[in-house]
Structure of GM21725:
Amino acid sequence: MRPLLMLTLLLVIFFSYCLAGKTTTIVSHTDTLDPQADGFWANKTTWNARWVKYWRAKKIYEPVWKKVWTPTIHNEWVPLPNVPNEWEAEKDRSYK
């Protein structure tokens, strides 16, 4: 009886540890929920290389150039397209 209880406790701890930390990420493609908005901000991240100089400690400090990669975030306003003319024509019709 006792080994079965310990095995059950071990399984409960194992599964709670495995399932802990799982999060659901809600992705929103627009920064606003305003239905009257005429566009939205699109964020694009690119990685660019740049050279960084640091000083290596020796008898005399000597400069060393190192290539590092850093993210660049581009914020771009994307306007929404206009409504097609066919939709405007259907909007004027009445379905009564």
Remarks:
- The two ends are 75 Å apart (CA to CA).
